[in-house]
Design brief:
By secondary structure, this protein is α+β, with helices and mostly antiparallel strands. Helix content is about 40%, strand content about 20%. The strands form eight sheets. A five-stranded parallel β-sheet has the order 3-2-1-4-5. It has a four-stranded antiparallel β-sheet with strand order 10-9-14-15, with helices on both faces. It has a four-stranded antiparallel β-sheet with strand order 13-16-23-21. The structure holds ligand MV4.
């Protein structure tokens, strides 16, 4: 095992990786920008090195400075986390060329999977089902029209270098094709510096289900089942769960085998994820492979009892995965809510400020993967995800009840967050039934965000209840006392009201 690992990231994921290092007896080296000098990951790591000004392009994206920092600190490996440099082929190669270990896949695997058309070609060769469509970029509108005719409208134009929905256009009729192609190209060129576009049949109303895989450098490739990620808005996932209500043990084995075949075909090593669309009749189609640890990895950890970051590090150090596929079975249910600094009522605009007060939920089955603390300044330089709240329960209903309870326990003052939004989702009948597709949340949004915040009366009642509760803590009210029989009862009603509104 390594004696020292550098973590090329910030926030909750940097802390997550530091924890795995500590359990392995590995020293951790944090890197930080000027904006993060007092961030928790800097304090929790064994060492920390400043890598530049606040903008990511001058700090967390500076692979050269990060490799130099690793050298200087005497680290043997670099864990990229997610985002930033995690899926850059050149960074994986530069780390290797510097004589260090990249805790992630080799550059060849990132390259093989980075181009969507190359990945589709690889999938076909490996017997992995893909969405019907082209496996090469289209030369012009005429060529695109010919493919669209072949598969039938609606079709989806996608950027070859794409991901995250950029450079994507639904085309419902031949007459719309030329202008859609033009705008898809423009968007792809802007986002990826590559305007190549290809054509797929458009799948209406599917789920987004992904399979976690874990591969060592000795040819062992395992899958850790699926995550259901359909609850998303503008390609930002809001809630993830494992397992999926739509996946039977048979389908899990089938999708899992498919993901393992894909990983083998790409020469994949370390943790990775195969994304699929799952349509209403149980057909699944490979979309793309994410060549990193994902934000939502904890739900898989909770139902499989396997620490993915711990095994990422051991696999990167050349160790053999000691698991048998047949022994890997999910147990219970896990749900994750992404707690972001966004204001629901303003259409999810980012909210900034200082975290003035923070109370983190705990208790049975509750996990908090956070990157903030009281006093943290939330600015606009980085991603608005502040933390992830993850719960485990025996059943899906139990997990939903726990998430509801944990969200009620959560208090964050100073910035607006997605907490109330998640509470409303937990109370939603559609969510509770599990009958959701990738389009569900955006259709649901108007009714969810329309709920009025507590009015002035409720705020007053809540404030009174808080004062009474504070008084009672110092001098407990004797229920049914001769002096004031009604007070205890009223105050408990008010307390309930206060609890319901979370005393915000
Ligand atoms: C699709 C699709 C429907 N049909 N492909 C969006 C991002 C990229 N990873 C692939 N995406 C989609 N590809 C076909 N042929 C619908 C989506 C899609 C989507 C996929 C996963 C999660 C959320 C999504 C939201 C909108 C569209």
């Amino acid at each position: 095992m390594f004696s020292k690992v550098l973590i090329a990231n910030r926030g909750e994921i940097a802390l997550r990786i530091i924890r795995a290092c500590q359990e392995l007896g590995v020293k951790s080296v944090a890197v930080y920008s000027d904006a993060d000098a007092r961030a928790p990951h800097v304090r929790e790591a064994d060492e920390a090195i400043n890598i530049g000004p606040a903008p990511s392009s001058e700090s967390y994206l500076r692979g050269d400075k990060i490799i130099e920092a690793a050298r200087r600190a005497g680290a043997q490996a670099i864990h990229p986390g997610y985002g930033f440099l995690s899926e850059r082929e050149w960074f994986s190669r530069a780390v290797r060329d510097a004589g260090l270990v990249f805790v992630g896949p080799p550059p060849e695997a990132i390259a093989a999977l980075g181009s969507k058309t190359a990945a589709r070609t690889l999938a076909v060769m490996a017997g992995v089902p893909i969405v019907p469509g082209s496996t090469e970029s289209v030369a012009d509108a005429r060529a695109a029209a010919a493919i669209a005719e072949q598969y039938g409208y609606p079709v989806l134009l996608k950027a070859v270098a794409g991901g995250g929905g950029k450079g994507m256009r639904v085309v419902r009729a031949a007459s719309e094709l030329a202008s859609a192609l033009e705008s898809a190209r423009r968007e792809a060129k802007n986002a990826f510096g590559d305007d190549a576009v290809y054509v797929e049949k458009y799948i209406d109303g599917p789920r987004h289900v992904e399979i976690q895989i874990l591969a060592d450098s000795h040819g062992n490739v395992l899958h850790l089942g699926e995550r259901e990620c359909s609850v998303q808005r503008r390609h930002q996932k809001m809630i993830e769960e494992a397992p999926s209500v739509a996946v039977s043990p048979e389908l899990r084995a089938q999708m899992g085998d498919t993901a393992v075949r894909m990983a083998r075909a790409a020469g994949y090593v370390n943790a990775g994820t195969c994304e699929f669309l799952l349509d209403r009749d149980g057909q699944f189609y490979f979309l793309e492979m994410n060549t990193r640890l994902q934000v939502e990895h904890p739900v898989t950890e909770l139902v499989y009892g396997i620490d993915l970051v711990y095994w990422q590090l051991r696999v990167a150090a050349g160790e053999v995965l000691p698991f048998e596929q047949s022994a890997l079975v999910p147990r219970g249910w896990a749900i994750e809510c992404r707690i972001t600094s966004e204001e629901m009522s303003s259409g999810f605009l980012p909210s900034t400020g200082r975290v003035e007060y923070l109370h983190v939920p705990s208790g049975p089955g509750v996990r908090w993967d956070g990157g903030i603390e009281m006093g943290s300044e939330i600015g606009l330089h980085y991603d608005p995800m502040l933390a992830k709240l993850i719960v485990w329960g025996r059943t899906r209903d139990h997990a939903i009840a726990r998430m509801r309870r944990a969200l009620l326990e959560l208090t964050i003052h100073g910035v607006e967050t997605s907490r109330d939004f998640h509470l409303r989702l937990m109370d939603d009948a559609d969510f509770q039934s599990g009958e959701i597709s990738i389009q569900w949340l955006e259709q649901k949004l108007p009714s969810i965000t329309a709920v009025k915040p507590p009015g002035g009366d409720v705020a007053l009642v809540a404030l009174s209840a808080a004062l009474l509760a504070e008084r009672d803590r110092a001098r407990p009210a004797r229920t049914g006392s001769a002096a004031s029989p009604a007070v205890a009862e009223v105050s408990s009603e008010w307390r309930r009201a206060a609890l319901r509104e979370g005393l915000r």
